[in-house]
Amino acid sequence: MLSYRHAFHAGNHADVLKHLIQIELLNYLGQKDKPYWYIDTHAGAGAYSLVEGYATKNAEFESGIARLWQRDDLPEAVANYVEVVKRMNADGELKFYPGSPWCAAGVMPQSDKLRLFELHPSDAKLLQENFADAGRRVQIQQANGFEGIKAILPPPPRRALVLIDPPYEDKRDYQHVVTALKESLKRFATGVYAVWYPCLQRAEMKEMIPALKKLPAKSWLRAELHVQGPSADGFGMHGSGMFILNAPWTLPQTLKETLPYLARHLAQDDKASFILESGGDL
Ligand code: SAM
């Protein structure tokens, strides 16, 4: 079942949270003068048009990146993220949105490598096209990312961010995430792992969080942005979260300064809120 196309959602509130945290994690890894890899198990197409095609259908970016784009009071982490989006839109108009691979390529040193998995044939092809000039720095596999990471962990530099961002259309994805992390931690215990998930009134989602907290990592951090209160009928996504294993010690403070701002400016009703909690040695 591969019906999900990320282009419909490009630049929405969930992408804002995910890409902002992704960029913070990569910038932190980049502070040390030592190589690292970026591994994306569910990479999508890499970059999206906001002025034609799928993204224009529901224009989800209008209540996401578009609300931040022109502001001049951005907290530092939001400004770092908006800067990456601005680089893709050099003429000052918001026409394109960078997916996670593009965000990564934009902030990583040229010498550091990207390993990208994308299963959908159309998105894998677009991803190849979007990185056609990247040479050996970027390796793309049209393959199941949950399986594919087994072969590349631990990465040769022994430092990496692994982003796990499945569509969750198949409810088995919740279990696949936990299993993939268990296996990955055995191979590469010191890696930084970031999982994106939707906030839904769904049992599988509610069971995933305690399972993630029990994983044998040094630390965990959970950041959720709820742009509205849960819907009365229990359907629909009222927000999204990022669960990070082995996050840098600076991230909780950064998110303390960032999440209230995002909840205020990306709110879709008066119940917008956030959750920030951590455990282990964070
Ligand atoms: N990470 C991207 C970003 O932030 O720009 C968005 C990814 S989107 C949420 C999920 C992607 O995973 C879709 O493009 C989908 O085709 C792909 N996909 C679904 N199952 C997969 C699997 N088992 N392995 C790799 N990719 C998969």
Automatic annotation (TrEMBL):
SUPFAM superfamilies named in the record: S-adenosyl-L-methionine-dependent methyltransferases
Site feature Interaction with substrate rRNA, where: Y4
Enzyme class: transferase
Active site residues according to the UniProt entry: D165 (proton acceptor)
Entry keyword annotation includes rRNA processing: yes
The keyword Transmembrane helix belongs to this UniProt entry's keyword annotation: no
Coiled-coil annotated spans: none
Top-level division of the source organism's lineage: Bacteria
EC number: 2.1.1.266
Keywords per UniProt: Methyltransferase, RNA-binding, rRNA processing, S-adenosyl-L-methionine, Transferase
Reactions mediated catalytically: adenosine(2030) in 23S rRNA + S-adenosyl-L-methionine = N(6)-methyladenosine(2030) in 23S rRNA + S-adenosyl-L-homocysteine + H(+)
Positions that bind S-adenosyl-L-methionine: H19, H42, S100, E118, N144, G145, D165
One Pfam assignment: RsmJ
Family listed: Belongs to the RlmJ family.
Subunit-level organization: Monomer.
Protein known as: Ribosomal RNA large subunit methyltransferase J
Organism annotation: Chromobacterium sphagni
